[in-house]
Amino acid sequence: MPRIYGAEVAGLGKCLPSKCLTNKDLEKIIDTTDEWIQSRTGIKQRYVMGEGETLSDLCVVAAKQALDQANLHVDDIDMIICGTFTSDHKLPSLAALVQDKLGAKNTGAFDINAACTGFIYTLVTGAQFVRSGASKNVLVIGADCCSSQIDWEDRSTCVLFGDGASALVLRQHDDPNVGVQSSYFGSDGGGKESLWIEAGGSLMPVDEEVLKTKKHRVTMAGKDVFKFAINALSTSAKEVLSQEGLDSSDIKLLVPHQANSRIINAAAKRLDFSDEQIYLNIDKYGNTVAASVGLALRDSYDEGKFKSGDKLLIIGFGAGLSWGGTVINWSID
Ligand code: COA
């Protein structure tokens, strides 16, 4: 039997763009109200990229914080993986840009596109590198700039999203029971049209007709995604808990993808989690796509919501359709 290592979470980092856009600010741009947005989603504000800011720069700030906390030098990283669908450029990967800006010399780098499930896919992929012994220190990043992809005249989508970057360092540990444990993932590409950007890929490159019809912007069937999301979160949680032989009472904190507080609360109710066990920070950031779970991890850690020895349940869903989850046995204070 090959040896399995632990993939310990050794550091966390985050970075938001400088420009804060409150619901009140949006009232001046589109036909909406602070009351509508807060009551339907729990969102009070979000951050969006300002003049001269780039997603790769945000990632570098978040990555340096995570490396500092892990007490690691940039040359210690031997793999960089970014969850994103909005790299600075169509080519190359965001991970390659981050590698260059960090000056990391001993690493591979690649992206994963799993939309809002991106952080969980990236985290679990990074953990496989560490658990197998292929890598010693993996830099996991979740980052998106959705403000560049949405239709700012479509009030049913533009109020939901924000930009941001989060980072996490996975460090090899002798004990396989430390860090990232079992995972579960699901996919239903048949539901692609309920949350997608139709144009800009190889099938429909952007041309004048696309620009006119705005097919290069995010479109979403909100109610369909809402129903799907509650099931996706509960299924992901149940599958991971059952693989680990755990129930909700064993989990210190549920850290879900932050898309809508009503979706999270509805799923948590089905799963028998108390309000104290559920982490919500959607009010501050909106839905930051692949950054969201990492931002929630960093903020909940800073707020002292868990400590060494606690178990965290991470669950998410997004375009694809995609969904999944994992358990982290937390080991640092
Ligand atoms: N401000 C004011 N009114 C708005 C609005 C806004 N920003 N956006 C939509 N509306 C209007 C619609 O035009 C519609 O009006 P109508 O009834 O006159 O046609 C009405 O509000 C729809 O309201 P409601 O049925 O209460 O909406 P909802 O409860 O389905 O909530 C969402 C809408 C988008 C918040 C909800 O469906 C949702 O969160 N879906 C999941 C989206 C998501 O999480 N996506 C990301 C996945 S990773």
SSE blueprint:
Elements: E1 6-15, E2 19-22, H1 23-27, H2 34-41, E3 45-48, H3 55-70, E4 79-83, H4 94-102, E5 108-112, H5 118-131, E6 137-144, H6 155-158, E7 164-173, E8 179-187, E9 195-196, H7 208-213, E10 219-220, H8 222-244, E11 253-256, H9 261-270, H10 282-285, H11 292-302, E12 311-318, E13 322-329
Parallel strand pairs: 4-5, 4-6, 11-12
Antiparallel strand pairs: 1-7, 2-3, 6-7, 8-13, 9-10, 12-13
Helix pairs in contact: 3-4, 8-9
The chain binds coenzyme A.
Give the tags:
Peroxisomal Thiolase, Chain A, domain 1, 5-stranded mixed beta sheet, alpha/beta, 4-stranded mixed beta sheet, 333 residues, 13 strands, 2 domains, binds coenzyme A, globular
What count of domains describes the coordinates? 2
Q: For this structure, what is the CATH homologous superfamily of the largest domain?
A: Thiolase/Chalcone synthase
Tell me roughly what share of residues is in helical segments: 25-40%
Bulk shape: globular
Text of the CATH class of the largest domain = Alpha Beta
Quaternary structure of the protein: single chain
At the fold tier of CATH, the topology name of the largest domain is Peroxisomal Thiolase, Chain A, domain 1
What is the ordering of alpha helices and beta strands?
EEHHEHEHEHEHEEEHEHEHHHEE
User: How many DSSP H or I helices?
Assistant: 11
